[in-house]
Design goal:
By secondary structure, the chain is mainly alpha-helical. The protein folds into two domains: 5-179 and 300-329, Rossmann fold; 214-294, Tyrosyl-Transfer RNA Synthetase (Orthogonal Bundle), CATH 1.10.240. 54% of the residues lie in helices and 6% in strands. The longest helix is centred in the C-terminal third of the chain and has 30 residues, at 300-329. The two termini are 26 Å apart. It binds tryptophan. Tryptophan (TRP) is lined by residues 6-8, 10, 42, 45, 132, 135-136, 144, 146, 150, 153.
Length: 340
């Protein structure tokens, strides 16, 4: 049986190589396995921290265009905007009845984000993981491709689904599994390879954005931090975070194993060769994506049309789950008994 695959992506910030290798290429591959593969741009999650409303709309369009440019095909997946499908917020509320306040309070991401807020720590920030659980559970998804940083949120949604089924009816919700990619979860900042590449908290020079021009991309790789091993050692190792990162990026964009890249590098003179090779490979990988992005991004109505069509398909699935959840919880009028 083909799995139902679901993932959500933030419309905030500029997408970078870590997002691409860790999430976006997995989304594209998921289109062949998922039945269906469902991808949601989570504008409602973006309202849990300080934000600008007009900018949010722009960021949703940016993200939609990036995903389409990277190879998501609206004929082969369901791509939609969270705020278009009201079932997410309704299910979020219903799931609060099986969510422990203590669990939400302990979430690492809540603790980090709330201490970073200068003005208001919104209740939405606390409920963020419940909305995320609703996103997935509304589609009875089996698989959730996400990065390592989402492990805790995935555990919580599994707890919520199990508790719901135990309290209101076994089999009502599907308990999802996470799918954390082996390499992409680990793409590192080029300047500070001890930390992951990230829009928040990473270094500008160490973060390769998908829309950086070729010269910028090559420069960022050229200046990547490696180590002072003399002679240079072009191999992965725990104490060589910078070199390991470059080898893994090169392997990921070329679609080969890191050991293959290491074997190829046997004749290289030094780290400069590795940096040039990975810079070139990333430029080659991103050039067609950037071209398609520019064409797609210019046509906002076409982007809205794609999102609207996706929302229609998403709503049909989510509405069926919500009907079962409401019935199980005794909310609203009784459902007519199934006919036939
Ligand atoms: N919290 C996720 C992130 O920051 C985004 C997200 C929202 C998500 N809803 C989801 C991921 C559902 C997977 C499934 O990356």
């Amino acid at each position: 049986m083909s799995p139902v695959i679901f993932s959500g992506i933030q419309p905030t910030g500029r997408k970078h190589l870590g997002n691409y290798i860790g999430a976006i290429t997995q989304y594209v591959a998921g289109q062949d396995r998922g039945d269906p593969a469902i991808y949601c741009i989570v504008d409602l999650h973006a309202t849990t921290v300080a934000y600008d409303p007009a900018e949010l709309r722009d960021r949703v369009h940016d993200t939609t265009a990036v995903l389409l440019a990277a190879g998501l095909d609206p004929e082969r997946c369901i791509l939609f905007r969270q705020g278009d499908v009201a079932e997410h917020t309704e299910l979020c509320w219903l799931l609060t009845s099986v969510t422990a306040l203590g669990e939400l309070n302990r979430m690492h991401q809540f603790r980090e984000k709330s201490s970073a807020q200068r003005e208001l720590i919104s209740a939405g920030l606390l409920l963020y993981p419940v909305l995320q659980a609703a996103d997935v559970l509304a589609y009875r998804a089996h698989e959730v491709p996400v990065g390592e940083d989402q492990r805790e949120h995935l555990e919580l949604m599994r707890n919520i689904a199990e508790r719901f089924n135990g309290r209101f009816g076994e089999g009502t919700l599907v308990v999802p599994e996470h799918r954390i990619p082996p390499v992409g979860a680990r793409v590192r900042d080029l300047q500070e390879p001890e930390r992951k590449m990230s829009t928040t908290g990473g270094s500008e020079q160490g973060t390769v954005y998908l829309l950086d021009d070729p010269a910028t991309i090559r420069r960022k790789f050229k200046r990547a931090v490696t180590d002072s091993d003399d002679p240079p050692v072009l191999r992965r190792s725990d104490d060589k975070a910078g070199v390991t990162n470059l080898i893994e990026i090169l392997a990921a964009v070329r679609g080969v194993a890191p050991s293959f890249v290491e074997a190829e590098l046997a004749g290289a003179r030094g780290y400069g060769d590795l940096k040039a090779a990975v810079g070139d490979a990333v430029v080659d990988e991103l050039a067609p994506l950037q071209d398609r992005y520019r064409q797609l991004r210019a046509q906002e109505q076409a982007l809205e049309d794609v999102l609207a069509a996706g929302a229609g398909k998403a709503r049909a699935i989510a509405a069926a789950t919500l009907a079962d959840v409401r019935e199980a919880m005794g909310v609203g009028p009784p459902q007519p008994p199934p006919t036939g």
